[in-house]
Amino acid sequence: MADEVSAAGKYLLISVPDFATDPVGQPASMVPEDPADKESELIPAGDRRGQTMSSFLRLGAFHEQPEKDPAAKRANELARVALAVSASQGGPFTLPDGTEVVTSNAGVGTYEVTDDDGNVVSTEDRGVFLDDQRVGDPPRGPDDRDNQSRHKADRMEQSKALLTRGGWWDHTDGNRITTTYGDKVEVIRGNYKMVVMSRQDDPEGAGGWDLSGGHVQDLGPASMPGASVRVEFRPGMFGQRGTWHLENTTNNFNQTSDYAGDFYEHWYGNHKECVVGSENPVEWHETLEKPYGNPAIVERTWASKIESYTGSSAKRVPSITEETYADTTSSLTDVAGNISESTYCDAIITSKTGKIDRPVPAMHEETYAVASNSITNIVTSNAMTNVGAQMETTIAGALGSVTVVGAQADITIAGAQEELLISAHHGSLELSLHNTDIFLGTKLTFQIGPEWEYKYPDTKTLKLKGLTTALDNLVTTVKTVHAAIKLTHMALTHQYIGAAIFFGM
After folding, report:
1. Taking Cα atoms as reference points, which of 376, 374, 437, 372 lies closest to residue 404?
2. What is the rounded distance in angstroms from the CA atom of residue 502 to the CA atom of residue 505?
3. pLDDT at 24
4. CA angle 59, 190, 57 (to 5 degrees)
5. Is residue 256 pLDDT above 90, yes or no?
6. Other C-beta atoms lying within 10 Å of the C-beta of residue 89
7. Got the DSSP string for 470-490?
8. Which residues make Cβ contacts (< 8 Å) with residue 199, sequence separation at least 6?
């Protein structure tokens, strides 16, 4: 064993250095070891075409100074990529459930702690696996066996020893192929993480899988995280010890999904919310690093049958609110058969079109039907129409109107009112215990053509009978006066005769 690959501890090393020259890929380019320091040592980056390849298997203690052996150095650099991949996933979640997914201050590996002025104070380690920073369900006491997580300090201690604990380390600069004709079973008591660099060296472009803490998460920091972005334990939900909260996101991708076959969805729980777009859309959100515009939504449905139910008579929805704000709307319903609509309400129905300070500029309604029947059965009805001008036109072969009401009052207040009736026959029937007509103002009536008026009882006959009776009474009175005059004449005659005798006439 050479000193440059020695370590404190026992190990077995099987090494095959410089076994071949890499025949594929692009020639390596020399780049600064520290990207922020252009003066740092130049190291090869990219493919290794034309350079020698090595392989080794190390059992026992790991390299203490891997930088002294080229193959061990490359192996160590690749191993440390596991600490960087998934920088946009994992981490504790401090916002309420349902808040838009935020991946800042998440991930594993290391992060820089800065002061208020932006100066780096220290570098902190987040571990290797997503479970190292996950909000879990640790034991609540020495006798708690229902826990699903270790304490965070224990998780971090395990991951910090990834490259120093020893065990088994193998590396090759070439390809590695493992074939198994039969079954293969791997049992890992710890965690598992696979990182796939995809033939490039930037950890942000890598992907893989993280299986830690009992959860499987896809890793795609530079693209689509996949299975989940964050998983954390929420204690005390649904009356149980708790449940796991899962976050998903697909950023910077166009996605197409096809479902062929039967499809079922079942949703239960305390809350279901769907948000599409934003009140403050932008083409690209700098903070969230993703598109943030409002989409065009197109929905098309062809079906053999469509049924929609909201609540039931046995379990009503306590409250339903629907609001629509748009520049223009258009709705078309074309039905070959019948349309049936029913609305039942045990309280008050309020319907508004426009507002007193925001009137609708114009309203146009059209109805074309062979027959129309409308029934309104209510205790009290109040209708008020306040318009600047109103025009009503009814064209019908036959039109009937029946109003049965205990009391009715019609009031019309208008600057000018005109009524025009053109009809082959116009009939009007009024049955009333009392009818009072009051007209104030100037009234002009124009009658073209003959007019007949029939009244019952005949008021003219009644008036003639009353006049005859009055004349009879007048004749009787005249006769009585005439008789009185005669008596008076006779009395005067007697007085005249008596006076003549007295004076000797």
Report:
1. 376
2. 8
3. 93
4. 15
5. no
6. 27
7. HHHHHHHHHHHHHHHHHHHHH
8. 47
Per-domain residue ranges of the chain = 3-175+190-252+271-292
- Alpha-carbon distance 165 to 11, whole Å? 12
DSSP H helices in 386-450: none
- Side-chain-side CA neighbours of 354 within 13 Å: the count stands at 10
> What pairs with residue 32 in β-bridges?
42
Between CA 326 and CA 339 the distance in angstroms is 27
Q: Round the average pLDDT of the chain to a whole number and report it.
A: 82
Token digits of residue 272: 């279901």
Number of helical H runs and strand E runs in the chain: 3, 14
CA distances from 313 to 317, 341, 388 (A): 9, 17, 45
The amino acid present at 112, given as its one-letter code, is: E
Query: Cα separation of 89 and 217, whole Å?
Result: 9
| Pair of tokens at residue 318 | 């306590």
Mean pLDDT of 24-37: 82
Average pLDDT over residues 240-256: 83
User: Residue for token digits 């150095």?
Assistant: 73
Say if CB 56 and CB 15 are below 8 A apart.
Answer: yes
Q: Is 9 left (phi over 0), alpha (psi -120 to 50) or beta?
A: left
Identify residue 12 by its one-letter amino acid code. Answer: L
On whether the CB atoms of residues 248 and 101 are closer than 8 A, the answer is: yes
Q: Sign of torsion, CA 233 235 236 239?
A: positive
Only one residue has tokens 């650099």, namely 77
pTM given for the model: 0.70
